[in-house]
Design brief:
heterodimer; A: 654 residues; alpha/beta; eight-stranded mixed sheet; 24 helices; B: 313 residues; mainly alpha; globular; binds iron/sulfur cluster
Chain lengths: 654, 313
């Protein structure tokens, strides 16, 4: 079976299995393997340390510790086996029945299990032992019964999930008998979790049995069990501490092996599970694939979203030379990005996801970056404020804010700039607020972070910010938690948080995507209004032409990590030069509903590792010619203030 | 809040009835009864029957249970079959030790476990893997054995702690702390490992949440993000785990008090079990159930505090 193979392919789990199996087999065949009689006393070797005669030494009566361990394993393991048998015999059928039939049985059983979880097992075991006197059977039966609740829960959950799956519904309506549904559809889904639970439980049972034996509630001496050997050794710890070691370590080893086997089964099952049911595959979102060669570095090509101010023919003509990677920032821009190149993954197998992006944002200006998901636009936005997250880093290029280069700053200095100078409005308003704190506390923390003031003033400022973003009744709002807000309100709070530090640049990453259509327009109006009143610059990242048209003056179009075109919004929309921009707009006709994702362009967005050397769009481009794929295509100015990355842009203008 | 208390009350009464009822049924299933045990082999049949009547053992089970329950509600849990001390006094004398032991272990588990989990969540790589391996060892070794190893090393060899015994805080606070130190660590060891792993997972999950990115974007310091925001959110799942773990800790006192000869309830029940002193075992079982019920309430309330989402419907 596939999962069995997957299990043994994991070295740790396979080793653990081998060790556990060896210990169990050695105990079962103790009469063959054991070097000595476990009860034979030999006073000459009393308290012997490990040696040739007694591999693990001998106890106070001169009995061979190794042999006693092997025979003792029989007691401990039999005890555990009893508990496990009861555990499975109760937990699996009850769980199946409750999960499949639901109804009254499920209700009652679930309540019983809830109570069982609250019972201190050891105490009930004490009651049982006190009544039925010592011996392993009664106590281990009790442990099995009391433990079975956890298996019940797992089996019930899995059965319910499986029963809800479409194919079971279909099977039921086709009139298949319950038994065959169970066998064909439900059992294959539960055996993995059952094995996991059972190995973990057996580890616990071994520990409990040892504890009971240690207290003397197991076999009668002189017969050995692992726990009672620890008990005997504990009487001589000052004189002969060694005798404590072998039984304790042995118990620890087998318990650990069982735990590792459980983990191994869990991993093996979840791995093969994803193969069996592709619809459920977790984490199938494409990221840069490690191990592939990095995308080819493109020679420094200028990618300027040149500003209207630079629209003189003279300025436009010098753009290619002066705004290439490493070029000086525009002196009056508040944000200048130059040749930004970002990669993910380890240095030896990194994947470039953003290539040589350059643009400027002037004070109070709003600039957009538009593209499909996977184009790298969000990465650009995040790298500006140094929030790339795990494994991402800027490998070349600069980000100038107010003349200061940010990519070289230490994290602490960068953190000082965030919120105070540049603030971020994230995508998903409801998940970007901390669920554990009230709105008031969250905003107050940001306010205090940026200017220390007395408590009353902080509170006043919080109220002021909430009214600034158009929220009614700010006084009651401060006591609310994020989950009590609607999406639109949450986004307003998100904007208030961004404004708390009085930033000069606001980065809005898909600020309306997650919202209802009616609310989207309100948020856009709010952002425009705030910009008018507060005069900050805005960088908007979006896939939505409507947002772009509403908020920005200029925008760059990104495809596969590169800026393919940049121009004033009017030009971009009405006279696009790049075939990609045209396709993007064609896919979003004039009266397209705002907020709907763009209909896709034929062909697939390539994963970063698969980007071609030539034009990234070539595989999907209707105008592509062999030259397009021959080498990197550069971004060049086509008209004043309008640049394009395309060899055939002239023919694109129809 | 009312709903929470009502639910707790129903669950608690159920648990108490189940534990005491179960105990009663088990006892009635026993071969031979208390009268036989007390008399031993020597008693005549007349003596036996007389004692049976005196102990009320001739009544049917539900009647006996009802009598016992009424007694418990009056604070009378019967008396030990051997020392004839009232069970309520035996329990009252010892409950403090057990509570201190469990509370101490819980504190150690919460503080050390979360600290380790935090370290392993933030320091990926070699240190994280080392901590994972340690936690694997921590859950695997039998805690009573670990306690004995601690005694051997720290008490017998280095003489840092008393080997066994309990010092009441009224006698000497430092002595009390020293006498509790090793038992608390012994009881806590498995829990630390479990919580470290759970905390690691909870903290890693929280660190990947969008709100962390947003907080960074607002310029909140890393310290506040991790120790204020992430920790408070991670506390929600951890409270549940700690609550379940507490029940295990009560079980654990049975072994730990025996190793360190602490005069607590766990030690009491082991002694009574060895002697088949059934009234004491029954009484202690009930008291343990009561302690579980009380801690459940505390945990529920705590969960209420850390998780605002359940506070409003
Ligand atoms: S360079 Fe060639 S492939 Fe690329 S967009 Fe222009 S025409 Fe299409």
């Amino acid at each position: 079976m596939r999962s069995v193979r997957a299990f043994f392919r994991q070295p740790v789990a396979a080793t653990a299995f081998a060790v556990a199996a060896a210990i169990i087999l050695a105990s079962v065949f103790a009469n063959v393997v054991a070097p000595h009689d476990p009860l034979a006393q030999d006073l000459r070797s009393a308290n012997a340390l490990p040696g040739a005669e007694h591999w693990l030494g001998a106890d106070t009566l001169g009995r061979d510790i190794c042999s006693r361990l092997l025979y003792g394993g029989r007691i401990t393991l039999t005890g555990a086996l009893i508990a496990v048998a009861v555990f499975v015999a109760l937990g699996v059928p009850a769980g199946l029945l409750a999960g499949y039939r639901r109804g009254l049985f499920d209700l009652v059983a679930s309540r019983v299990v809830e109570v069982m979880f609250a019972i201190p097992v050891m105490i009930i075991v004490m009651v049982v032992v006190s009544v039925f006197s010592s011996g392993v059977t009664a106590s281990m039966l009790t442990i099995g019964i009391l433990g079975s609740g956890s298996l019940f829960r797992v089996v019930r959950g899995q059965t319910m999930a499986a029963a809800q799956e479409l194919y079971v519904k279909a099977a039921r309506s086709e009139g298949l008998r319950a038994r065959s549904i169970l066998r064909r559809h439900i059992l294959p889904n539960i055996w993995g979790p059952v094995i996991v639970q059972t190995t973990l439980f057996s580890a616990g049972a071994i520990l409990t049995e040892s504890g009971l034996a240690f207290l003397g509630f197991s076999v009668q001496p002189p017969a050995p069990s692992w726990g009672s050997m620890i008990g005997e050794a504990s009487r001589y710890i000052s004189a002969h501490p060694w005798q404590l070691i072998p039984p304790g370590v042995l118990i620890g080893v087998i318990v650990m092996c069982l735990g590792l086997i459980g983990d191994g089964v869990r991993d093996a099952v979840s791995r093969t599970d994803t193969v069996r049911r592709p619809g459920r595959r977790a984490g199938s979102r494409r990221r840069g694939q490690a191990g592939r060669p990095a995308a080819p570095a493109v020679p420094a090509a200028p990618a300027a979203l040149s500003r209207p101010g630079a629209a003189s023919p003279d300025a436009a003509s010098r753009t290619p030379a002066s705004t290439g990677a490493g070029a000086d920032p525009q002196p009056d821009a508040i944000l200048s990005v130059r040749g930004l190149t970002v990669a993910f993954g380890r240095a030896d197998s990194q994947t470039v996801v953003v290539q040589d992006v350059s643009f400027d944002v002037g004070p109070g200006e709003s600039v957009g970056v538009v593209g499909e998901s996977g184009s790298g636009k969000t990465v650009v936005a995040r790298s500006v404020i140094g929030l790339l997250g795990r494994g991402g880093r800027v490998i070349s290029g600069q980000v100038f804010f107010d003349g200061q280069e940010l990519t070289a700053l230490p994290p602490a200095a960068l953190a000082k700039i965030r919120g105070r100078d540049i603030a971020l409005i994230p995508q998903e308003p409801t998940t970007t607020l901390d669920p554990a704190f009230t709105i008031g506390k969250q905003i107050a923390e940001v306010v205090r972070r940026h200017d220390r003031r007395p408590r009353a003033e902080v509170r006043a400022r919080v109220i002021e910010l909430l009214s600034l973003v158009g929220l009614a009744e700010p006084e009651t709002l401060v006591g609310r938690y994020p989950h009590e807000l609607s999406g639109g309100m949450a986004q307003r709070v998100g904007i208030a948080l961004a404004l708390a530090g009085r930033p000069r640049l606001l980065i809005a990453d898909e600020p309306t995507t997650a919202l209802d259509v009616t609310v989207q327009q309100q948020i856009l109006d709010l952002l425009r209004d705030l910009q008018d009143r507060l005069g900050m610059a805005i960088l908007v990242v979006t896939h939505d032409w409507g947002v772009l048209a509403d908020l920005t003056e200029r925008a760059g179009v990104m495809y596969a990590g590169q800026v393919v075109e940049s121009a004033p919004i009017e030009d971009l929309y009405h006279r696009p030069l790049s075939p990609y921009t045209r396709a993007l707009i064609a896919a979003n006709p004039h009266n397209a509903t705002k907020g709907e994702p763009l209909p896709s362009i034929p062909g697939q967005v390539l994963a970063p590792a698969d980007w071609p050397i030539g034009c990234h769009f070539a595989p999907r481009c209707a105008l592509a010619t062999p030259e397009c794929s021959a080498g990197p295509v550069e971004l060049r100015p086509a008209e004043p203030g309008h640049s394009v990355r395309c060899l055939h842009s002239a023919s694109a203008v129809v | 809040m009312i709903r929470l208390l009502a639910r707790w009350l129903v669950n608690s009464i159920m648990l108490l009835l189940v534990v005491s009822g179960l105990t009663f049924v088990l006892v009635s299933l026993a071969p031979g009864d208390a009268a036989r045990t007390i008399l031993g082999q020597r008693g005549t049949q007349e003596q036996y029957l007389a004692l049976r009547e005196q102990l009320g053992l001739d009544q049917p089970l539900p009647v006996r249970y009802w009598d016992w329950l009424r007694g418990v509600l009056r604070g009378d849990m019967g008396e030990s079959m051997f020392s004839h001390d009232p069970v309520s006094r035996l329990v009252a004398d010892r409950i403090g030790v057990t509570i201190w032991l469990v509370v101490g272990a819980l504190l150690v588990i919460a503080v050390v476990g979360v600290a380790l989990g935090m370290a392993s969540a933030r320091l990926k790589g070699a240190i994280g893997r080392c901590l994972d391996a340690l936690s694997m060892v921590g859950v695997s070794i039998p805690n009573f054995w670990f306690g004995l190893v601690l005694v051997t090393l720290l008490s017998v060899k280095l003489r840092l702690f008393p080997v066994t015994g309990y010092v009441y805080p009224a006698e000497s606070v430092s002595g009390w702390l020293r006498s509790l130190a090793l038992p608390v660590v012994t009881l806590a060891i498995g829990g630390i490992a479990v919580i470290a792993k759970q905390a690691r997972d909870a903290i890693s999950t929280q660190l990947d949440q969008e709100y962390v990115l947003a907080l960074r974007g607002q310029g909140i310091s890393e310290r506040s993000i991790v120790y204020r925001h992430v920790l408070k959110n991670a506390a929600v799942p951890l409270t549940t785990v700690l609550g379940l773990m507490l029940i295990g800790l009560f079980s654990g006192t049975v072994l730990v008090e025996s190793i360190f000869a602490l005069p607590g309830l766990g030690g009491l029940v082991v002694g009574a079990t060895t002697q088949h002193d059934i009234p004491v075992v029954e009484g202690v079982a009930l008291v343990f159930a009561l302690m579980v019920v009380t801690t459940n309430l505390v945990v529920d309330l705590l969960y209420h505090v850390v998780n605002p989402r359940i506070r409003t419907p």
